[in-house]
Amino acid sequence: MFCTSCGRALGDFANFCGSCGARVKRPEAMQESAPVESLPVQPPPVESPSPSSALASPPSSAEAKAAIPAGSRTTCPWCGTVTDAKELSCPRCGATLSAPAEISETGWKQLPGRKDMAKLQFGDSFCQIEGLYVPVADVSLAPNDGIYFTHHVLLWKDLQVNMTTMSLAEAWKRMFAGLPLVMMQAQGPGHIAFSRDAPGEMIALPLQPGESIDVREHLFILATHSVSYDWFMTNIWYSTKSGDDQETHYPVGAFMDRFTAPESPGLLILHASGNVLVRELAPGEALLVKPTALIFKDPTVGMQLHFEHPRTGFSLWGSWGNRYVWLRLWGPGRVAVQSSFERIEGENAYMTSCSPATQHQW
Amino acid sequence: MTDPSKLSTGEPLERIQCQWCQSMNEKSALTCRSCGAPLDIRNLVSESGWREAPRIKDMTEFHFSSSTCQVEGEIVPVAEINLGAGDSVFFEHHIMLWKEDSVPLTVLQLPGGMTRALAGMPFIISVATGPGRIAFSRDATGELVVLPLHPGMEMDAREHAFLLASHQIDYSFVRVKGFANILFGGQGMYMDRFVTRNTPGLLMLHGYGNVFERTLKAGESIMLEPGAFLYKDSSVAMQVEFQRLGTGFFGGSNMALARMTGPGRVGIQSMYVHHHTE
């Protein structure tokens, strides 16, 4: 592909020419189509070809590499997009390219720094992330582009941006704070902006064709129309009893969102509270995390409850009255956690039953 | 900080205008002496025209009448006021952080004897008079918005968002009428109004999260989540409108959006007070 303005060779995923800055015009076939009505309710692609591909080098098709001369290429440490080394921010996820990736000794990678007002490009549209404490995702939609979002994250919009509700099969099953969870869509042209009411970070996740990601519910900000949306039951729960009160708790939520880019690349934006840390689990490698800290995981990552008890005289084995609740995650695949998370409900109440779990007594 | 008596010496014509509050500053100044905005950092304006409120550098000092204010901390910033003799500031009682023993407090008499309550407590506007130091903060991550008000300016602010105002500013509140506005402000139907007479004054607000400002042209409109509204010039009209959310079940529900129409400035906060609509 070549820039129609200056003739420079471009990568497949370029939205703007790196040489003259002109917007890249694509042939119709390559444009991100928006099959909104036909959201596939498909089973999860459990055997994703390579779960690490997103981190390693997703859009690094041979052509994309060829377009940028060797030696002046750089790979985004967050999403793996190969870009010109002259770029300061990744054009797909907004990560700062000049700073080295921050990885802890234990293997957690911090969400890369982002310059205020960083721009993310998708299709003919772009999204600017503004502010550092409670960042705003400010989307400039081109005439034929659209996004969808949950209604409670809207911050402001231009008058001409048309918003409609998106019909989802069995959506009535899901509630947000006692209200139906309404998925809305916005159609360009115009500006529309979103934020969530907690200090934290905006996470940009460019999805490559065929790639899926599982996201804890209510963290979703927006997705482009090329991303399909589905959810599944987590089957992670436990019931507690206090007197005659029986309660069922879902520490990772009763439902989990699954986003997939079936045919063309898409952009997914999430919001997490506090700071965001990501790591890659090798096949079979397991890790215990606090269930409410989970942000997202690759569909290949398995999860199950895990309980730990102290072996003390008065805490009877069967009482379940004094235990820690963990979420066991095992690879292969990525997992991400947030540093600020909710208290786990019912952690100290008498437990009567639970989903399949492992346990350990010490 | 710059001493005003020295401003007229040296190169008289070289001045930097603060892009936030329009005050003129000495060429060598790094921060604006009227609002504390950094002068050596370019403005952060989004493509859609929102300008980020200037991030006040830690320990920045700025001046109003014969007092100074120092802003301390960046995540939950504290405004520490060194009141000059005869200067006073007024504020809502619950945002005081500390004060010197000698600083007298009084209660601002509001006209009309109207009573308002905040979280079940009587709503009291207190006044602190100099000389002495008094400091304020609000209980959430956010930004201080410093708005020096020039004579004749009128600003409206979301209730409980104002941190303090100097004594040159007249304070009143307006009851926002109409059933739809019950949603606006959530717990209340009031909006604070600040008016300057002949002398410039200082108004400081606290916004949750990040604060953005945009100037609307006459007749230009934008739709806001009502919980995001922070302040506006009183020339900006605000009207609540509903967007129907059809879920296909239970008849759906409504989403309230505030239509803001220019001319004038509108300020928003990114961590908003969310109001569930029925």
Structure description:
The complex is a heterodimer of chains A (362) and B (278). Chain A has 362 residues and is mostly beta strands. Chain A has a single domain (41-82, 105-361), classed as Double-stranded beta-helix (4-Layer Sandwich). In chain A, 3% of the residues lie in helices and 40% in strands. Chain A is built from 2 helices and 29 strands. In chain A, strand 10 and strand 11 form a beta hairpin. The longest helix of chain A has 6 residues, at 62-67. The termini of chain A are far apart. Helix content of chain B is 0%, strand content 47%. Chain B contains no helices and 25 strands. In chain B, the strands form 6 sheets. A 7-stranded antiparallel β-sheet of chain B has the order 3-20-25-22-15-18-17, with no helix packed on it. Chain B has a 6-stranded antiparallel β-sheet with strand order 9-12-7-16-19-14, with no helix packed on it. In chain B, strand 4 and strand 5 (67-72) form a beta hairpin. Chains A and B meet through strand 5, strand 6, strand 8 and strand 11 of A and strand 21 and strand 24 of B.
